[in-house]
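Give me structure tokens for this 124-residue protein.
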Amino acid sequence: MTDSEMQEQIEKSLYSGQASYEVSLAARFLDIWEPAILAVKREGYSIKCIGTRGVVVTEKFLQKTAVTIPYGHPTAFSILGSAEQLLRTENSSLRDTIVLTMRLFIMRAVEKRKAKKKGIFFNK
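Here you go.
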């Protein structure tokens, strides 16, 4: 994926307010990964395993929510919410697209909440 393709994909996700990605979720055992769907929406995200485990997490974006790339893992990324979720993709460009998209969604969700609080304060 080129930079322009990545930019276009991120803009499309931001415009529609949602994105969905096929990923693998670390099963907390030695190198066992479960196929999953990461769904990102304006206010939060969910991870649903394909198979018996079902929904693993559904969370709203908070100011403390962080999406990071662990050192030494070319296709992995981590979402830190109420718990840490380690995920990976098929290639690094998809991982980068997901990380950048999620960071923008988090930033917008936090800004939106701050604006609502200010609006409530100034409307009195």
